[in-house]
Design a protein that fits this description.
The chain contains six helices and 15 strands. It is of the alpha/beta class.
Amino acid sequence: MSTVHVIDHPLIQHKLSIIRDRNTGSKEFRELVEEVAMLMAYEVTRDFPLEEVEVETPVATARCKMMAGKKIALIPILRAGLGMTGGILKLIPTAKVGHIGVYRDPETLQPIEYYCKLPADINDRDLIVIDPMLATGGSAVAGIQFLKQRGANQIRLMCLIAAPEGIEHVQAKHPDVDIYVAAVDNRLNSHGYIVPGLGDAGDRLFGTK
């Protein structure tokens, strides 16, 4: 079974509280989501391997450590995942960025892919799938499945807030994918929203309703 990592650093929790506030406007919401994503990226990448390198400082030669040639790709799930991407890119500017668009068929309730653009070497990269809200888990499960069908095999999922139902769904379908969240909330309501949650992340990011 995959591991759920709850990143409860005080700075993240403080900023997440402001993000949740219904009175937080779109500009501040966008900035805070980006900041929290950047802070979370420290933990999401904590186990990435390092290699020793030799560096000439102004004083002497030093044995230092750098990322061991790790190739990374960020995969935001459209559209809300876009709000987290910029923050992670500030820490990992060489990461490639792919995009997945998923919607749910109103009759069959099955997830339908409507857009997918990925780096050509997807099977050689460590992927971080990004979506602020893990509610039912339907979009995340479908997005991860689409990646696996294209050869991806190193995937981790990064969300701001998750519901227990969404975590259970992802773990049932993709037990090899670790999940990183800033908070696990109580439940889903009858409309599939996380309670207490923060509302519709996409609408709050982009000022739509």
